[in-house]
Amino acid sequence: MIVSRLDGTQVADHVEALADLLVDTVDGGASVGFLAPLDRATALAWWQERAAGVAAGQLAVWVARDDGRTLGTVSLAFPDKPNSRHRAELVKLMVHREARGRGLGRRLLATAEEAAVGAGVTLLHLDTETDSPAEHLYTAVGWTRAGVIPDYAADPAGVLRPTTLYYKYVGAAAGSGVTALTR
Asked: pTM here?
């Protein structure tokens, strides 16, 4: 299994496989912002739009591939405001249904966390559907629950569900409350 970071051109080159992964993730019941059934054209368009953010440095995308198949992805979204450059949002952690339960989600999280530290980020945050398998993963790898927002987003079936917010300090300044802005 190879995990690699994509630049804007590479995102465009991988858009077909990433779209298939997104469709599989939604069809598998994961709440990642889309309703099921997700048509492939919508998934393709969504990933094509991400390429510009990657090229601009606002988004970092990693893919996990094995034997030529894209089995997972994770992204970091970087804020553009000067007072928030110490943090990033972990977004769209997706693992293909066939690859779940083998530690790929943990590996993708660790990759994103290490890259965040390398970029000078000391605080990560995310949101996920409450009581989802993803929530259990985040708790298991040291993310801290900040709170729950009721009826925040619809799951793939269209049912309003609560969302849990998480954060995690990373890097040498983890948890110190004192950070120098380096990005």
From this structure: 0.92
